[in-house]
Design a protein that fits this description.
Blueprint lengths: L1 H5 L48 H17 L9 H10 L8 E3 L2 E5 L7 H13 L26 H15 L6 H17 L6 H19 L9 H5 L3 H8 L8 H11 L8 H19 L33 E3 L3 E4 L2 H13 L5 H13 L5 H22 L7 H7 L5 E5 L1 E4 L2 E4 L1 H4 L8 E5 L5 E13 L5 E10 L6 E4 L2 E5 L3 E2 L5 E3 L4 E7 L7 E6 L48 E4 L22 H5 L3 H18 L18
Antiparallel strand pairs: 1-2, 2-17, 3-6, 4-5, 5-9, 6-7, 8-9, 8-15, 9-10, 10-13, 10-14, 11-12, 12-16, 15-16
Helix pairs in contact: 2-5, 5-6, 6-7, 7-9, 12-14, 13-14
């Protein structure tokens, strides 16, 4: 800090009045030549978080390096020929050193890279993934036709792959030591990008990240560890000081830059086109505030807006949806209708008194199986009870209560899709024909356990006085310890076994959306459950409402980051399949300067380097700009897809 205080404020620019092109270093040998003008502010020195690291691009660059190295991508892999030469110069990992075979230079295949067969398996896995509506882009477009490469990933694509797909896909393609370390790094990003960040979780993650990076150093070559890997160590501290990441990352700014770029109509004058487009947009925005009878950006409904519902006194009548697709009238058999009506009655907190009263009568009657009798007889008993009270004009009998006791119509309305609480659900029969997946459902149990299934039918039961209840009929998977396994925050479930065949209904308002991806490590009948946290949907409980988690939210505490040290085995980083890669191009060593002693504080040749002609300087600037454009993603697809942060987005 003493050196920083001695640095003078400099104004950038090439004009002689602003210091000229060349700024010669003084005799004080400082590490910095420029100090930000923000340090002139009186409060700047006391701000704890002076710089905000861009989590979006850090995550993207780490994903590119990690995925490129695993896939052996010649453009993004860190396991290059020069990286192998570094190992030889350092005298480590002799099994990975380059060797000569006749007149060829051979590179042994590393354990941390996929074989050709595993590379195709991972590409097919990514190609098979289907996301919910508005969750992410279709990644199958980024997979090469021969299933050999994954190209053209945007920042949000890397965000989804890093947190959703890479932990699942790599488990069966590399050994457990490597896959568990990758999963631990991905789990940290899940914690970091959660909507609710727990300070305790970030404090623990700060210590565990050191161990994770040490484990990565035992696996990947030194060339893998660039500045982006180092910046991960500072992210937990920034989350503690700055709060949740989704309030600070670059996604909204990149999307706005994409919007400004769309204003360009004359490529020769991009600044003028952006200015004109911005002025026109501001004028139209101002005028649209005075238009009430036409659709504008201020009153336009969202893509998955479910409309305005009428307020009901009974909770079950609040279970409504915005139907989509063709409506069909379906006759429901008596057994199925009785089970559905009992579920509606049993999930009505307003009639809990009547439910308890009927159970007490069954106990006084000495019923051998009171639960079965309660399920079979309560609907008729409740009908007689309410109508008897209605005949004497009991004040507690309302129109809604009378309609609920009168049972539903024998014909129900069936829909192939609907929107509930801003979430789109589609029946499984229609979902298999789409490129999105919106049929996965889950519901919490009474003891905080989760039940997972697939949506089979969307049924609307009609009652008297124009009241109705929307139910989801689902196929529920068996969730015992043999058919549902959770390991490293990854929950896998067997979809061949079905349970609760007599209890398939849930209220539409109770459903939480999930989606399933294939589990390559367990077989074709297993799926990995992925929870969805929808953008712009928050779990805010109002006064007087039930404590049921109707909407979906996530916290950093939902992801347990546990780094297992144990006895770290000595890893043989050469693959046992005998695969070697011949180096066809002439081998050029570009990294030997790393091992030379370089004095950069007092460079005598600095003046000669800076005396380049203007053409050379301009060419270097153009090359740096092109490289920067490759690293910075402008999210060109963001206007076409409603991404959320976590996922959430």
């Amino acid at each position: 800090m003493d050196q920083l205080r001695r640095v003078k404020i400099t104004i950038p620019g090439k004009h002689p009045n602003y210091g000229g092109v060349k700024r010669k270093r003084g005799d004080d040998k400082l590490n910095w030549r420029k100090k930000s003008i923000f340090y002139e502010l009186p409060y700047w020195a006391e701000i704890e978080l002076k710089h905000n690291l861009d989590v979006m691009h850090i995550e993207k660059n780490i994903c590119d390096s990690l995925l490129g190295t695993l896939m052996g991508d010649p453009h993004k892999s860190k396991d290059t020929d020069n990286a192998r030469h570094d190992l030889q110069n350092l005298g480590i990992r002799s099994e990975l050193h380059l060797y000569e075979d006749g007149n060829k230079l051979m590179k042994p295949a590393a354990e941390y890279t996929f074989s050709e067969a595993n590379r195709r398996k991972f590409c097919r896995f990514v190609r098979s993934v289907k996301f919910p509506d508005g969750f992410a882009a279709n990644l199958w477009k980024n997979v090469a036709q021969n299933d050999s490469r994954i190209v053209g990933l945007k920042s949000h694509d890397c965000h989804v792959i890093m947190q959703r797909l890479l932990p699942v896909g790599c488990r069966s393609l590399v050994n457990k030591t490597i896959s568990s370390t990758i999963i631990e790094l991905c789990t940290f990003f899940n914690q970091l990008c959660a909507r609710t960040v727990n300070v305790t979780d970030m404090v623990k993650a700060q210590d565990q990240l050191v161990i994770i990076l040490c484990k990565l150093e035992r696996i990947f070559p030194p060339a893998f560890f660039d500045i982006m890997i180092h910046l991960v160590l500072h992210l937990p501290e920034e989350a503690i000081l700055g709060g949740p990441v989704f309030m600070r990352w670059m996604y909204p700014f990149e999307r706005y830059l994409k919007r400004l770029k769309d204003y360009v109509r004359n490529a020769a004058k991009p600044e003028g086109s952006i200015s004109e487009g911005y002025v026109v947009d501001e004028a139209l925005t101002f005028c649209s505030r005075y238009f009430d009878d036409i659709e504008t950006r201020f009153n336009r409904p969202d893509r998955n807006d479910d409309g305005i519902h009428r307020t009901r006194r009974l909770f079950v009548f609040e279970s409504q949806c915005k139907p989509m697709g063709k409506q069909s009238q379906v006759y429901v058999e008596k057994n199925m209708r009785d089970r559905a009506e009992f579920y509606i009655l049993n999930n009505s907190p307003e009639i809990e008194t009547y439910l308890n009263q009927h159970k007490q009568e069954l106990q006084l009657r000495g019923c051998l199986n009171p639960d079965k009798a309660h399920r079979n007889e309560f609907a008729d008993w409740f009908f007689e009870k309410i109508y008897a009270m209605n005949r004497v004009h009991a004040p507690e009998v309302t129109h809604e209560l009378l309609s609920l006791a009168s049972k539903s119509n024998v014909f129900v309305s069936s829909y192939p899709a609907c929107i509930v609480n801003g979430v789109r659900f589609v029946t499984h029969a229609r979902d298999v024909r789409l490129k999105t997946q919106n049929s996965g459902v889950s519901v919490p149990g009474t003891e905080n356990e989760m039940f997972y299934g697939q949506l089979q039918e969307i049924l609307e039961f009609s009652y008297l006085n124009d009241f109705s209840v929307v139910l989801f009929k689902c196929k529920w998977f068996r969730c015992d310890s043999r058919r549902m396994v959770t390991e490293n925050n990854i929950t896998s479930i067997n979809i061949t076994s079905e349970s609760y065949k007599d209890d398939q209904f849930i209220l539409a308002s109770q459903a939480q959306q999930v989606f399933y991806v294939e589990d390559p490590s367990r077989g074709p009948n297993w799926r990995v459950v992925q929870h969805v946290n929808h953008r712009s949907i928050w779990d805010i409980t109002e006064d007087g409402m039930s404590d049921i988690d109707l909407l979906q939210d996530n916290s950093s505490s939902n992801f347990t980051l546990f780094v297992d040290l144990g006895n770290l085995p000595q890893i043989n980083l050469q693959r046992n399949d005998g695969d070697v890669i011949p180096i066809v191009q002439p081998f050029t060593v570009v990294s030997q300067h790393v091992y030379e002693t370089v004095s950069f504080l007092n460079d005598d040749d600095e003046e000669d380097v800076s005396e380049e002609d203007d053409e050379t300087v301009e060419e270097s600037a153009d090359e740096e700009t092109d490289e920067g454009n490759d690293a910075v993603d402008t999210e060109e697809d963001d206007d076409d897809h409603s991404y959320h942060t976590s996922d959430s987005d």
